[in-house]
Amino acid sequence: MSDIFKVKIVFSQSHLIMPKIILGILIILGVVIFIQSLMKAKRENRPVMDFKNKKFFEDNYDKVKFYGTIILLLLYVFSMNLLGFILSSIIFLSLFNVLFTGKKDIKSIMKSIVISIIETMVVWFVFGYIFEITLP
Questions:
Q1: Residue 80: which of 64, 72, 97 has the closest Cα?
Q2: Is the N end or the C end of the chain the one with fewer CB atoms within 10 Å?
C-alpha cells in the first residue's frame, strides 16, 4: 500500500513524459472547443462547418516562405541525427531567420547567426542543466 505514493523516475525516459501530458491537454481542449462550436451553431441555427467560399491558402501567399519552411523543418529533423542538437539548431535557426527577414546582406546574416547561437545555448542550458531533460 505504501508503494502507491512513491514515484520512480527513470531519467533516460523522463523527456517522454511532458509531450504526452501536452498532447492529452490539447486533445481535451480540442474536444471542448468542438463542443462549444456545436452548441453555438445549434443556437444560431446554422451548419457546424461551412466550406463554401473557403480557401486553404490566401490569394498571393508567399510560396517561398511556405515551402521553404516545410523543407527547412524536414531537413532540421533529419540533420539532428547527423549533427546533433546544438549544431543543427544553430544552422537551421540562422536559415529560418534569413528566410523570414528576407535580408541577405552580411550584417543581417551575422545577426541571424549570433541570435541563433545565443538562443540555442540558452535552450540547451535551460533544458539540459536546469530541467535536466535530455536533448537529441
A1: 72
A2: N
Grid cell digits, residue 92: 537551421
Cell of 97: 531567420
Note if the pTM is more than 0.70.
no
CA 92 – CA 76 distance, rounded (Å): 6
Report, as an integer, the average pLDDT of 114-123.
93
Hey, CA dihedral for 78, 126, 98, 106, is it positive or negative? negative
Q: CB burial class (10 A; 0-12, 13-18, 19+) of residue 85? A: middle
| Residue ranges covered by each domain of the chain | 16-130
Residue 105: per-residue pLDDT: 87
- Per-residue confidence (pLDDT) for residue 23, from 0 to 100: 93
**What gap in Å lies between CA 32 and CA 35, rounded to an integer?**
5
